[in-house]
From TrEMBL:
<feature type="domain" description="NADP-dependent oxidoreductase">
    <location>
        <begin position="15"/>
        <end position="330"/>
    </location>
</feature>
<dbReference type="InterPro" id="IPR020471">
    <property type="entry name" value="AKR"/>
</dbReference>
<dbReference type="InterPro" id="IPR036812">
    <property type="entry name" value="NAD(P)_OxRdtase_dom_sf"/>
</dbReference>
<dbReference type="GO" id="GO:0005829">
    <property type="term" value="C:cytosol"/>
</dbReference>
<dbReference type="InterPro" id="IPR023210">
    <property type="entry name" value="NADP_OxRdtase_dom"/>
</dbReference>
<dbReference type="InterPro" id="IPR050523">
    <property type="entry name" value="AKR_Detox_Biosynth"/>
</dbReference>
<dbReference type="GO" id="GO:0016491">
    <property type="term" value="F:oxidoreductase activity"/>
</dbReference>
<keyword id="KW-0560">Oxidoreductase</keyword>
<protein>
    <recommendedName>
        <fullName>NADP-dependent oxidoreductase domain-containing protein</fullName>
    </recommendedName>
</protein>
<dbReference type="Pfam" id="PF00248">
    <property type="entry name" value="Aldo_ket_red"/>
</dbReference>
<comment type="similarity">
    <text>Belongs to the aldo/keto reductase family. Aldo/keto reductase 2 subfamily.</text>
</comment>
Length: 364
């Protein structure tokens, strides 16, 4: 794999990050990943050069962290960058949820115990908390950094104004800097480019895309007009009962009758054939060639799936024409004020300006 810096920090991470939400977890009729199966995935990921692993305390209510910890304790700890998250409810107590100081402090200690380590490399808030001022949770994270329990802090699933507020507080109130934003980003979800990623580019924050394949909708295994059955992964399960739909498992009807989706899939299939790759690898490679992205978070329930996804990490690139075509087919209609901002600035490109409102595609 290739290795990128995590934001403005000196920490380097593999450009593929292993997400562990499936460890100890059963959902949408899929197979539960037990400890033995999960450890095989971790072993193979490490042997392929992966050093970045992401989990969260609420994944399987702590089981994911525990499985990772039992593996990590047998490794050379400094070889790996371990990321976890806090915010979700783990217990029934009134203070056992959110970003209050009490909950973060206790959650961090519990995560360290489950992970069997004395520090967390990247501690991330899982979501914004309307009930708690950001100064409270930023101050708590500062104390955890000062105590050596946390090395770097990150955020996840924030709106643009929330991210900018946090960045400003870090700068002017002397909280530890935010080095990463973990956000849903894929060829079917590009809304973060309008606001959040503009903040990231301006402030030197890495993007860590989750759901790079949009729950399976970007794998190429579905056909128009053919409703997948329950055996066809999470999309198939949700297709039978769309009340289960969520961001990581969108409703089948959301895409089946949409011409733009099928045009995009046809283009991805064509690119995949030219490159000698799979459609999934094209989807991941498209993300890796975006200049705000440091590492793409993938999940895997088998070594074969892991190896297929990791094959997007290096040794090949989508050319400019292929990137441009995928950009165009997946582009969103610009709404006000973004449409006006782009229009009046189309001839106002200044490379010395740190935040030009331009496409973010790496030079090939």
């Amino acid at each position: 794999m290739e290795y990128n810096f995590l934001g403005r920090s000196g920490l380097r991470v593999s450009n593929i990050c292993l997400g562990t939400m499936t460890f100890g977890h059963q959902r949408f009729g899929g197979n539960k990943m037990n400890k033995e199966e999960s450890h095989k995935i971790l072993d193979r990921f490490a042997s392929l050069g992966g050093n970045f692993i992401d989990t969260a305390n609420m994944y399987s209510l702590g089981v994911s962290e525990s499985i990772l910890g039992e593996w990590l304790v047998r490794q050379k700890r400094d070889d790996f960058v371990i990321a976890t998250k806090v915010r979700g409810s783990m217990k029934a107590g009134v203070n056992d949820v959110g970003l209050g100081r009490k909950h973060i402090m206790s959650s961090c200690l519990e995560s360290l115990r489950r992970l069997q380590t004395d520090h967390i490399d990247l501690y991330q808030i899982h979501w914004w908390d309307d009930a708690v001022p950001p100064e409270e949770w930023l101050g708590t994270l500062r104390d955890l950094v000062s105590a050596g329990r946390v090395r770097h802090i990150g955020v996840s699933n924030l709106c643009g104004w929330q991210l900018q507020k946090v960045v400003d507080l870090c700068q002017y109130e002397k909280f530890p800097p935010v080095v990463s934003l973990q956000q849903q980003y894929n060829l079917l979800c590009r809304h973060p480019e309008f606001e959040e990623f503009q903040v990231c580019k301006n402030e030197g924050i890495s993007v860590l895309p989750w759901s790079p394949l949009k729950g399976g909708m970007l794998t190429g295994k579905y056909r128009r007009g053919v409703r997948p059955d329950a055996s066809a992964g999470r999309i198939g399960v949700v297709a039978q009962d769309e009340s289960l739909a969520m961001q990581i498992a969108p409703a089948w009807s959301q895409y089946d009758e949409k011409d733009h989706y099928w045009r995009l899939m046809e283009a991805m299939e064509k690119v995949a054939k030219v490159q000698g790759k799979t459609i999934s690898q094209v989807a991941i490679r498209w993300l890796l060639q975006k200049d705000v992205v440091s590492s793409v978070i993938i999940g895997a329930t088998s070594k074969q799936q892991l190896e297929d996804n990791v094959a997007a990490s290096s040794a090949w690139c989508l050319n400019k024409e292929q990137m441009d075509e995928l950009d165009k087919l997946s582009d969103l209609d610009l709404q006000y004020p973004h449409a006006m901002v782009r229009l009046v600035n189309k001839d106002r490109v200044n490379l010395f300006n740190p935040y030009p409102y331009v496409k973010n595609t790496r030079t090939i």
